[in-house]
Amino acid sequence: MDDLAIVILAAGKGTRMKSDLPKVLHKVAGKSMVVHVLACARKLTPDNIHLVIGHQAQLVKQEVSQYFLVNFVIQPSLLGTGDAVKQALPELAPKIKDVLVLCGDVPLIQEDTLKELIATHRTTHAKLTVLAVNMESPTGYGRIILDTSGDMISIREESDATRKEKQITTINTGIYCFDKTFLEEAIGLIRPDNNQAEFYLTDMVQIARSKREKISVRLMADPRQVIGVNSPNDLERVEALIQQIENELS
Q1: Looking at 14-23, 62-71, 141-150, 210-219, which range is the least confident one?
Q2: Domain ranges in the chain?
Q3: Of the CATH numbers 3.40.1410.10, 3.20.20.70, 3.40.50.620, 3.90.550.10, which one belongs to the domain with range 4-227?
Q4: Is 212 an active-site residue?
Q5: Which of 102, 97, 77 is closest to 87 using CA atoms?
């Protein structure tokens, strides 16, 4: 996919990991989480991969460079996912049509799932496509809010959700595919109007809707692939699942 760029978010501190090591460098099956994500990304496009780093950037560079040649993008201040993607945009080649955004702390994501997301994005001619999944226990995840016609309204973070919205089991995985032109035009409209004073990439859904742009949702089947690692317990859970998933797919 020569017209696809991949931006991987790997700048965060991961304070809940209770470790000085950058979160994305914690190991799963003997390799850093971000290395697993990069290995998957390279199956889609080996040349147009941009890794956004910030906290202990040099350490992340050293680790990744042992495995892959990628473009490193520095996020000078950790101002949220929207700001992280914004830092990468000037690095994208003119030929790029779509931008896939991945998380460096979601190491179980698989190539076929991402191909299906991209296919949905392109066949529906969407400006933004969100990868979603149903979870029996959605606590802690942003919920996918749809209108009565089944069109996406927004992604509602748990802290902002009403009691009724918290009953929704379709959650945001944090993985997106954007039309590059729309992304470049709209990302500057994100405002840090939240308690963390950060720029949230999830706000792009409401921006797209306000512009009456096409938004698609790709509902994936396997929630195990999008487990994010935010704590040592999450890391243990992912470690236990990785061999199981690989065996099923082999």
Answers
A1: 14-23
A2: 4-227
A3: 3.90.550.10
A4: no
A5: 77
Q: Are 155 and 205 in contact (CB under 8 A)?
A: yes
CB 131 within 8 A of CB 107: no
Give whole-number Cα distances, 141 to 71, 136, 155, in Å: 30, 12, 10
Distance CA 144, CA 130 (A): 9
Sign of the torsion formed by the C-alpha atoms of 152, 153, 155 and 161:
negative
Name the burial class of residue 18, with classes exposed (0-12), middle (13-18) and buried (19+) by CB atoms within 10 angstroms of its CB.
exposed
Instruction: Match 């949905």 to its residue by tokens.
Output: 120
CA-only gyration radius of the chain, Å: 17
Other C-beta atoms lying within 10 Å of the C-beta of residue 156 = 19
**How many C-beta atoms lie closer than 10 Å to residue 233's C-beta?**
10
User: Of 16, 143, 156, 224, which is the active-site residue?
Assistant: 16
Whether the pLDDT of residue 195 is over 80: the answer is: no
**What is the rounded distance in angstroms from the CA atom of residue 88 to the CA atom of residue 73?**
6
Q: Answer yes or no: pTM beyond 0.70.
A: yes
